[in-house]
Design brief:
By secondary structure, this protein is an alpha+beta fold. The protein contains 16 helices and eleven strands. Bound molecules: protoporphyrin IX containing FE (HEM).
């Protein structure tokens, strides 16, 4: 049988730097993906020009490791990112560094242990049941729906159920979800001209509407935490694990304010990321019926129509390969910005104090030097036994070093379950597939919503 021609899913066209800048300014939506010039996919390290403050894009895997393995003394999280998120999540694990971060990480890690994931799995399954019912209703009415929104809704439901034991149907959870969406819409709009003219450590103020949304989210998270602080409260979820965590030296737990910070992070880092990955995965499967057929054959062999257990969801090697290849082509965290706190050397290159150091899974994962046919969708790159072919350090969807994603195992099992459950029941017929293109928001998202119809098999 003749091999199918390779499939190159959408990406911004590769332009020289000045044309890429013009494109971003013309579009005016602050999308940093369209700002990347063709050169960004070939260079090891280079200036992402035009800025008063030096902005370095770092693609060399050895330098990437040096930066991400730093303990926050030279390359902490960037001031821009910390400034954008602090009204929502304070000085919590996602943005802190040094001793403060080490204490938080040690207290949070156990909430994502294998045993905890096992417990969370039942709640994930309940959320997928609810999503299946919604898709059934849409299929009955032949009604188009937004794939992105459906995935955000599903992954937010999973976070609500696994962290707080409430479903997204509850008023409080729904309000948190809506305010998060507002926050993300505003905060994701990078003001390109400010990147160009502002010196390092310029304070970026938030609009009053965003601050108000953050205040509301924090109040509601506080209410949810209070239900767990009642003596004898009957919860066994991620919130109760974090509430029960103690500092190994002082024996102290998190204060109520710190709990709001930390549990807010799970909302922020834990639902839009997975929703982004799933949106792209279902889009890619819809575009490649031959890959979808292999996904279905694997589910059929491994589980048939029955329930999918935790152990089964963890195996499914082809579904895993599809998930990994999706994360390569559309890494949910497009950029991981750090700032040079002091002058530093990367090999023979000198970085000045205040330089913004951009590590971009997006360019690393599509780099001309590290990947064969980098823009093609080919899950077999991640087939068991072939992962040794990947250049070490060129694939970092969950980050690298001490700040590596806490929720990577959670996201992998949740995504395998969702892909398996929905792919075996539905075809997603994408409307206007040729109009789909990616943009960097808080996560890597379709520039415009992907509308689809669900058709039952
Ligand atoms: C496909 C889904 C996900 C992707 C691709 C992803 C990606 C990442 C990346 C790249 C980082 C490192 C950021 C940096 O170093 O600047 C990170 C950190 C983090 N992620 Fe995830 N994430 C995902 C899902 C989740 C989930 C489900 C949770 C929790 C429920 C979570 C919680 C966190 C936390 C708390 C951190 C901060 C860790 C630290 O700084 O110590 N993530 N994630």
């Amino acid at each position: 049988m003749a091999a199918r021609p390779s499939f190159h899913p959408p990406r911004p066209s590769l332009l020289p730097s000045i044309a890429a800048l013009a494109r971003t300014i013309w579009r005016g939506d602050g999308d940093l993906l369209s700002l990347l010039p063709a050169e960004a996919y070939r260079m090891a390290i280079g200036e992402l020009g035009y800025s008063r403050r030096s902005i370095k894009l770092v693609n060399d895997p050895a330098f990437v490791r040096q930066i991400l393995e730093d303990q926050g003394e030279t390359f902490p999280k960037s001031d821009l990112m910390v400034g954008a998120l602090e009204a929502l999540i304070g000085d919590s694990i996602f943005v802190s560094d040094g001793a403060k971060w080490r204490r938080q990480r040690a207290m949070i890690d156990p909430a994502f242990s294998l045993m905890r994931l096992h417990l969370a799995y039942a709640s994930m399954t309940a959320a997928v049941d609810a999503q299946e019912a919604r898709l059934d209703a849409l299929a009955d009415r032949a009604e188009a729906f937004s794939l992105d929104l459906a995935m955000s809704h599903l992954t937010a439901d999973i976070i609500c159920r696994t962290v707080f034991s409430v479903s997204l149907q509850s008023d409080v959870a729904r309000e948190v979800f809506e305010d998060f969406a507002l926050f993300e819409r505003h905060v994701a709009q990078v003001k390109v001209w400010r990147l160009i003219v502002d010196p390092a450590w310029t304070k970026v103020g938030q609009e009053p509407a965003v601050l108000a949304a953050c205040g509301r989210i924090r109040r509601r998270l506080g209410d949810l935490i209070d239900t767990h602080l009642v003596p004898g409260a009957p919860f066994n979820d991620i919130a109760s694990a974090v509430i029960g965590a103690r500092d190994a030296e002082t024996g102290q737990g998190f204060s109520r304010e710190e709990l709001i910070d930390q549990l807010g992070v799970f909302f922020l880092a834990g639902h839009e990321t997975t929703a982004s990955a799933l949106t792209w995965a279902f889009y890619l499967l819809a575009m490649r019926p031959d890959v979808l057929a292999r996904v279905r054959a694997e589910i059929d062999d491994a589980v048939g129509d029955g329930p999918i257990t935790f152990e089964q969801a963890k195996k499914l090697p082809f579904i895993r390969a599809v998930f990994k290849e999706t994360l390569r082509l559309y890494p949910p965290i497009t950029f991981m910005p750090r700032v040079a706190l002091k002058p530093a050397m990367l090999g023979r290159r000198r970085l000045r104090r205040g330089a913004l150091v951009m590590i971009a899974p997006w360019t690393l994962h599509r780099h001309r030097r590290y990947w064969r046919d980098p823009d093609s969708f080919d899950p077999d790159r991640f087939a068991p036994g072939r992962e040794g072919e990947i250049v070490p350090g060129s694939y970092i969807p969950f980050g690298h070093g001490p700040h590596t994603c806490v929720g990577a195992g959670f996201a992998a099992v949740e995504s395998a379950l969702i892909l398996a459950r929905l792919a075996r029941r539905f075809d997603f017929l994408i409307k206007e597939p040729e109009a789909v293109s990616p943009a960097a928001r808080l996560t890597t998202r379709p520039r415009r919503q992907i509308m689809a119809h669900a058709r039952r098999l």
